[in-house]
DNA sequence: CTGAAAGCGCTTACAG
DNA sequence: CTGAAAGCGCTTACAG
């Protein structure tokens, strides 16, 4: 900047104003300065501004390692959207993959202790203990795609409840009266909320909830376990995620049960498993774009004003209709007397 | 720092030295300062140091968007290793996913124009035009997992040549004499080098190269195409990657050809497709850890001294033996006269 | 419309 | 072993 100023015989203040398009410089001079800057290959020193402002213009994005494995591109996609929105605002996203060791050992990212970021977006459920640690950080933070009832940290989540409710409604409308839910209710808030949406649909249609039709799919550590099918098979399954729906379809098929003719199955997430499955899964697509945008906007407002609070923001999902749902078998028979 | 200094009645210089474990402060005072720092919740301001040093202690990692899709966790894993090694050296990795638009429009990352990083590691093949653009950047840069013959940019790559050579040798040792190579030789340097390793093995064993046995797998834009099998089927296939090997196995199986009994197939990468395949693929595992370590070390040396050059560094891969290879059919018959 | 001065929080080189 | 001074490259508040 000084070099540019010297070459033009003006002060560095003027150059700064021109390059930032601020008032107080004639348009003519501004233009001259900008042209020369490009010519001289000038690159803005963001560090100097950070120093002055006390703001790094970086936001840390924390993703637990277990959500980054093979076949798990979802969070990477979300991260990508986040950075795009951040860049639109002159910010950068710095990805921090939280490994198990640090999560269990309650180690804060060096990003924090080195003052490298102005705030954190945590993308994906972390342990209760780590949530407490995150709370203790003296910067704005928010949770994305999960929340914790005991903390006051702002969060942006898919409207799991309503999406599961609507998806179950679809099954009911197709004549299903015996519908199972597949998922460990104590594992994540997503699974819980999706279950409650399923339950709301049952309630609304005066269908009893049968505890035998709530099927566990994973142990406490999130590892998938064999699904125990009930004695008397339901005609439809609401699965908490596509991967489990995929496993379930495989299991049913291997038992000689046809999907969707004999059993309908729906998933959640619209990830690779929804397409890998045979038949392809009817499922719910998360609105990644909207979630990323909301999280970034809220975060930047919090950076400006640390007292801003947004609470829990729900983003609606979209049902994707594919081939894993059909009318309930009994209904089919009733509807087609020709088959008698 | 000033606050700490004031509370202890010393200067901020002394505090700085103590916190950085430099000479010139008594051990006693150092200890006192460190304790107080923790007590006061002091967080180091990395920005200030950056300002002074003219170094951001950040390294940009550029991954082309097309390598981050579903089922492509490889580069994310590499990124994770890179950041781990960077952190060990007091550095941070900033991920920049290069979207197609920016790659075609030759837009440099804002990370560069904002002086946010001290160097770039490009992870995954980019277009020739973009390579030229990268060259024009006035910071240290290096390529990871690919290289370009026309540029003098340092690179770290898997030793594709030798790994493919060794893998082909394995097939030859199993009695195979008609071995195909599957891959578009004009697509990436990896595919080319793997082909040459395959060719070297043929040469060494005095086996003629049959052009009909070089099978294309993708078009210019990298989209997979249907593989055209030759009239007379070889007894083994060396595929340039696991995904293509997986597709090939599916195709062979659907044609009623048994793998590996009638045809052996080997892949490359040891990714999710190697395990998805039935039978599981014999393949080459890239030494991610070693590649990441080498890239980071070289990069940091270049940051210290921009004139340092490392050229092309090859990292050896490991063959993973699974179930997609068996002895050549004719050999089998010769070996087991009991079957007559 | 233009610029001199101060300051962001560190580190380095030097003096004591 | 300890500290006063200068400086990294910007921006902001103020004076002209």
From TrEMBL, chains A, B:
<dbReference type="Pfam" id="PF00356">
    <property type="entry name" value="LacI"/>
</dbReference>
<keyword id="KW-0238">DNA-binding</keyword>
<protein>
    <submittedName>
        <fullName>LacI family transcriptional regulator</fullName>
    </submittedName>
</protein>
<keyword id="KW-0804">Transcription</keyword>
<keyword id="KW-0805">Transcription regulation</keyword>
<dbReference type="Pfam" id="PF13377">
    <property type="entry name" value="Peripla_BP_3"/>
</dbReference>
<dbReference type="InterPro" id="IPR000843">
    <property type="entry name" value="HTH_LacI"/>
</dbReference>
<keyword id="KW-0678">Repressor</keyword>
<dbReference type="InterPro" id="IPR046335">
    <property type="entry name" value="LacI/GalR-like_sensor"/>
</dbReference>
<dbReference type="InterPro" id="IPR010982">
    <property type="entry name" value="Lambda_DNA-bd_dom_sf"/>
</dbReference>
<dbReference type="InterPro" id="IPR028082">
    <property type="entry name" value="Peripla_BP_I"/>
</dbReference>
<feature type="domain" description="HTH lacI-type">
    <location>
        <begin position="1"/>
        <end position="53"/>
    </location>
</feature>
């Amino acid at each position: 900047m000084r070099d540019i100023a010297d070459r033009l015989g003006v002060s560095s203040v003027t150059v700064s104003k021109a390059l930032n398009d601020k008032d107080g410089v004639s348009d003519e001079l501004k233009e001259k300065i900008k042209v020369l800057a490009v010519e001289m290959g000038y690159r803005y020193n963001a560090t100097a501004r950070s120093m002055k402002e006390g703001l790094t213009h970086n936001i840390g994005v924390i993703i637990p390692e277990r959500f980054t494995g093979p076949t798990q591109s979802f969070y990477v996609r979300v991260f990508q959207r986040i950075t795009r929105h951040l860049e639109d605002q002159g910010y950068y996203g710095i990805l921090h993959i939280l490994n198990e060791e640090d999560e269990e050992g309650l180690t804060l990212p060096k990003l924090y202790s080195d003052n490298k970021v102005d705030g954190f977006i945590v993308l994906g459920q972390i342990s209760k203990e780590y949530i407490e640690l995150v709370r203790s950080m003296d910067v704005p933070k928010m949770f994305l795609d999960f929340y914790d009832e005991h903390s006051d940290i702002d969060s942006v989540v898919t409207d799991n409840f309503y999406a599961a409710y609507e998806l179950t409604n679809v099954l009911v409308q197709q004549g299903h009266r015996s519908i199972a839910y597949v998922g460990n209710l104590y594992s994540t808030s997503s699974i819980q909320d999706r279950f409650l949406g399923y339950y709301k649909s049952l309630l609304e249609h005066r269908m009893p909830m049968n505890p035998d039709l709530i099927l566990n799919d994973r142990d406490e550590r999130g590892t998938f376990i064999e699904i125990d099918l009930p004695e008397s098979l339901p005609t439809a399954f609401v699965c908490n995620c596509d991967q489990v729906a995929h496993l379930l379809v495989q299991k049913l098929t291997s038992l000689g049960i046809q999907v969707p003719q004999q059993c309908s199955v729906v998933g959640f997430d619209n990830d690779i498993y929804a397409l890998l499955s045979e038949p392809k899964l009817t499922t719910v697509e998360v609105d990644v774009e909207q979630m990323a945008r909301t999280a970034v906007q809220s975060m930047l407002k919090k950076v400006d004003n640390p007292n801003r609070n947004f609470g829990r923001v729900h983003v609606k999902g979209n049902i994707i209709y594919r081939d894993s749902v059909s009318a309930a078998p009994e209904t089919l028979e009733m509807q087609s007397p020709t088959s008698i």
